[in-house]
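subagent[fold] <- orchestrator: predict structure for attached chain, return tokens only, no commentary.
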Amino acid sequence: MPKSPSKETTPHPPPAGEGVGAWIEADRAIRSLEVGPGLIRWLAHLSGEGGESAWTKPALIRFYEEKAGETDTAERFFAELRELVLAVQAVEVGRRYAPWASVTAIADVPTSTLDPATTIASPSVWLARWVGCCQRIAAHFEELKPFLADLVEESPVVPDEESDDIRHGEAGVAGFAKMLDSLIESIPTRIDIPGSSAKVPSEEDAQRFRALLHDLPKGPIESALRGRTIRYEDGVELRFLRFPHLGDLSWDGSPSRLYFQLDADGAHLPAGLAATLGAYVGPAMPALAVEASAFATRCTRARDRLRSAFSTELVAMALTEELPNVRAGDSEGA
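subagent[fold] -> orchestrator:
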């Protein structure tokens, strides 16, 4: 067992070190993106109407079972997508009626990928959350594209009985497929970190990780590593849902995983856990800084592709101020 570092901590953690600046710059770049609230409502509409349909969801889960030999990736993707739709729905209900009318279903979603305390955010932050969620299925997206095209051709065209007409353009499976094509860029699932971090965690490692929690802004950049696995040469793997606050660590292919959910400054973080995470995250920060910058760039390109792909719908929404209902699927319990 590694020796636990001293439990003494300094009141003001030192700077987190190399790579943090790139994360802060990427966060600023995403926050500065020009994104209107209508685009986020439209994403929620497409995700709820197409992604939660009785036609799309089972088909994509079956695709991952046949092509990748597992369904976990697709199931996590749909759980996270549902969480986003529910969160937007809660914000919309609170804005249109009263704060006490906001739905609380977000807390019931088991993925906990979205901090309920940060649901009130700018549209560019929501866009980053959508890009991070869809990034989860990016590794197989080139194979998925023709499958989605076939799915669109085969899917039944069922009119929405709650809509007066079809003024909002493509929705259903076709709109959902177009949304994924706009949001996703093919990227490898695994981020390999050269060298081995197999060393006794130290107090310096604990300080480094606490500084990381303190220095990195909470917000859009937390989604940068969604769906990616950070793998070290000694067999240790790290996965983050909200970097660096929520994730899990595994080792040597063991079925056991160490899950952690941390507060903003790590005040209640045990010294041993802080040191262990610092020993692995610290050496990876230069490589992860590149991933952060790439994520911000992907968000910009996704915004541009969405505007182009759904220009007619977005213009019509802006002119009429009529927005589609934001729903999390049509079936009960979905």
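orchestrator: received. Logging for downstream: The CA atoms of residues 92 and 102 lie 8 Å apart. DSSP finds ten helices and five strands in the chain.
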